[in-house]
User: What shape does this take?
Amino acid sequence: VKFAGSKGMSDRLHFVSLGQGQGENAKKIMDQSKKAGDWVLLQNCHLSKSFMPELEKQVMGFSAAHVTINQSFRLWLTSMPVDFFPIPVLQNAVKLTLEPPRGLKNNMKRSLAEVDTLEVFASPDDDPNAPVFPTCSKLHAYKKLVYSLCFFHACIQERQKFGPLGWNVKYEFNDTDMEVSLQWLKMFLDEEEQVPWQALHYMIGEINYGGRVTDSWDRRTLQCILQQYYLPAVLKDEYSYSPSGTYTSPPSDANIQQVRAFVDALPMHDDPEAFGMHETANIRFQLQESNALLTTVLFLQPRATSASTGGPTALTPEKIVAQKAAEIESELPQILEVQEAGPHTFRLMANGLPYSLSTVLSHEIVRYNDLLRAMQSSLKDLQKALQGLTVLSDSLDKMLTSFMNDEVPQNWAAVGYPSLKPLASWVRDLIQRVGFIRNWLRKGDPSCYWISGLFYPHGFITGVLQGYSRQHNIPVDTLGFNFAVLDVQHDSIQKPPHSGVYVWGLFADSCRWNKEKGVIDDCLPGEMYSGMPVIHVLPIPDHKVPENHYVCPLYKTTVRKGQLSSLGQSTNFVLAVELPSDKPTSFWIQRGAALVCALDD
Assistant: This one.
């Protein structure tokens, strides 16, 4: 829009926000603008997939001999990266990419450039005619809070590089969020005698920025970070945004040149402590970058059709896949049969009601059997196709590619449990999971449950609550969980607890269990995950979170992201585990501390 204004085209710039039903309107405006020499901006092309073929046809028609186009006509397009955007349009266009800068320093420089810095930071000594806060009555507070808002904006954007440690879901925070927050900040400071901290937290954290946040645990993180930047202590010059004192705010009497020099002096490479994270977060970031690069290289790798060396006895990729398929088929566990059940597996409670965990077991058997049958069928079909006995269908071809890349085939993942493991580790894990379910089926309730080996741990948690509710005749919606971390390993437990269940198989992410102190503690250097001891999960009525406990989310996988369920929670989330801590809750929230059921290897 600014560029159009500089070229005198502000009144001749036509906007069309593409979406449902806007295709014909966009086509009509383009036809009129080609004759009149106006500019057309088609926004959000990624939201109008059905219009893309027509857009390609229109753009390709610009070069036709019979088409007359005014020399002043320009077509502008905006889109997110999508695979259906027409390639010919890209090839015939001048392309501009807008990405947020990397690093707190560069983010701060851009944020301050978007702010009316001459109004905020100017002083009469720089320019006698420069306005100094003409619309805000609290000069000192406004300067400090504007700088804090810019730092907060940079921090929440830069946290995304740490993947699930930063945010469970990637959010597109943009300059509009900061501009609206600045307007609210001005209004509140003008209308209130004191700085309304609570109102600022709500408007900025819950509405402006929080309106984009769909995950409830991310919303907790956002509010926690905001409270670090918007509190009374931030009005002091000596306030530091990081424990090391590296990141502070400029003096309240600084002019614009001094503020720019202050930001230029910030470190080029950000230490994780600037985000409240442990130093191992950098390892996660570097692994994430490396994996993304290797995944791209693997995707671009051409498929080998024959052995490059070794003569006629060398194994082709098809033979390697055939051997791997035969090996997996030979190791595959047998289908779980209800007839294998022991005498005490499916039982009734003393009051005659069915035992809830027996129902959980029957559901687990059905799910694992569906996966095993899908694997048996597809492995047979793949081996026949590689022998030339049947046609290699599209699904089998994708399965072949997955085997060569040591990835879990999509047709297995569609009926399987969430997992990030490579194929070889995934198969070993599946064998162990089915073995656990088979032992449960044959021997009855285990003394300690391997919660990570369950297909659907949500159902297990619900079953524990229902079992306690039926046993004690208490409404299930009044129950909560109490958690006690035991200083024992699962193989040393011989008897189940009198009430509740023992669970094992969890891993601490961005924290660890300190058995000497009996609290969660910081990671050891270079340690990203650590195993958790056995946890006693006990339902109790009218439960309240104890003091000095961190409410730690438990996820199925380390990616943490899932689909948003009807209950407003991610499908990857299992439950909140309360762990004792000698540090404030905000410390662990900024760390991104969580528990996970399964690792990636």
